Amino acid sequence: MHPRILLLSLTGFFVSTSIFMIAPMFSVYAYEYVGASAVEVGVISAAAFLTALFIRIPFSVGLKTEYFHVALIGGLAANSIALAGYGFSENIPTLLFFRVIHGAAVALDYTLMLTLSSMIAPGQTDTTSSIESYSTSLALGLVMGPALGSLLLTFMDLRALMFVSSAIGLGAVLSGILFARSIHGFWYGLQVGRIRIRDVARLLRSRRVMAPAATYFSFTLAYGAFIAYIPLRAKIDLMITDQDITTLFSTYYLIVFLARLFIGRLRKRFGSVKLLYSALTMASLGLITSSLAPTYPLLVAGFMMTGVSHGLIFPITASVAARTTPPDLRNLGNAAYLTSFDVGNIIGPSVTSLLVGFAPISLSVALMAASPLLGMLTVPVIRRLGIP
Questions:
Q1: In 3D, which of 69, 15, 16, 65 has the Cα closest to residue 178?
Q2: What pLDDT score was predicted for residue 32?
Q3: What angle do CA 104, 106, 109 make, to 5 degrees?
Q4: Contacts of 327 (CB under 8 A, 6+ apart)
Q5: Residues 43, 48, 53: CA angle, nearest 5 degrees
Q6: Residue of 250, 249, 285, 279 whose CA lies nearest to 262
Q7: Could you say which DSSP state residue 325 is in?
Q8: Residues near 54 by Cβ (< 8 Å), separated by ≥ 6?
Q9: Cα–Cα separations (whole angstroms), residue 3 to 7, 69, 291, 322
């Protein structure tokens, strides 16, 4: 692996680990340590996605290519500050303030890291492999974060865990600085002027970005419902303990990591289009199985199928968006693409919550399984883009 790609992947790993160390327990922390009500917990949690939704594209429009690495370091520092801010928060306004900062930092960091991973491959010839390496490092952080958090919680409380996650975030700042030094002077021929409004309009109308974004959005709608309601369904309907639910999600993220670890081989054997059809099918089956499973083993099977789909869909669609977007518009294209994740994680749980008002949780979540199947309608557009 090229040193630039290795350093960026290491940065992504530290960021992902720091965030997902506390993500599974953030709502509990807000409720038990800061005194938020159940309704306020939902508002505070959603504030990060709403912030990300509104800043991704404006940041991308105003930021010149040669300052990407500088902005990345600033975003990494903001991530660490926000995590420490959670630990210092004693009231709801303070926690909400740092949640907004965290949403902005995550939006900036993930957009820039995805863009940079598509631009730093040696000779600009191996974009797909670079993105796969980066996405695998994120998945490894998904596994390590919750596992490390569970271990640390055996001898410290949640407030202390926030400070530990902030310290890991500082590791991302350090590796980010080393990465920035490794690409000093690398931007030959890639510097561009300020993006014009008509560039934004042209890109947002382009199937090169909108097709992979729509495909990813179809998954994130289902994922948003899955992450919000399947734990509750497992606890109420199957009477599964908190520890078993935590174990399920650790297994889920491990499956995501393994899928991304082997995606290069799978892509060469089957091609991106066939993998997308398979992943979307597994997402739908996984959601149906986990929402309607009458037993714990079937619930595990549902988690595994959803995890495989999660592991495959992001790197494939992200690679499509990066490879088909001109370098001077790539960060804007990635911002538009990643906005689909923000919107999906806002709309998915919201739609499911409306359905829960009229039907059981199990049936409400199962109905959201239609979303990945509808996402198949955009795959032929991706095929016509010439993606192997």
A1: 69
A2: 80
A3: 105
A4: 65, 119, 190, 192
A5: 110
A6: 279
A7: S
A8: none
A9: 6, 16, 43, 21
Task: Give the residue among 2, 173, 200, 183 at the shortest CA–CA distance from 74.
Answer: 173
Question: Over the chain, what is the mean pLDDT?
Answer: 83
Q: Taking the mean position of all CA atoms in its chain, how far away is CA 55?
A: 16
What letter represents residue 316's amino acid?
A: I
- The reported pLDDT for the residue numbered 242 is 62
The predicted pLDDT at position 16 comes to 93
pLDDT digits (tens, 9 = 90+) for 58-92: 777 767 767 787 889 999 999 999 999 999 999 99
Structure tokens at 76: 């990494």
* Residue 356: other Cβ atoms inside 10 A: 16
DSSP-H helix ranges across the chain: 3-22, 26-32, 38-62, 68-88, 92-117, 127-152, 158-182, 197-204, 207-237, 242-261, 263-270, 272-292, 296-323, 330-356, 361-367, 370-375, 379-384
pLDDT at residue 366 tops 70:
yes
**Distances 201 to 52, 59, 205, 319, 378 between C-alpha atoms, Å:** 20, 15, 6, 21, 20
Q: What is the pLDDT of residues 286-308, one digit of tens each?
A: 999 999 988 889 999 999 999 99
Contact (Cβ atoms closer than 8 angstroms) between residue 118 and residue 63? no
Q: How far apart are the first and last CA of the chain?
A: 23
Q: In angstroms, rounded to a whole number, what is the distance separating the alpha carbons of residues 34 and 86?
A: 9
User: 4 near 60, Cβ under 8 Å?
Assistant: no
Which tokens is 83 given? 């995590």
Helix (H, G, I), strand (E, B) or coil at 191: coil
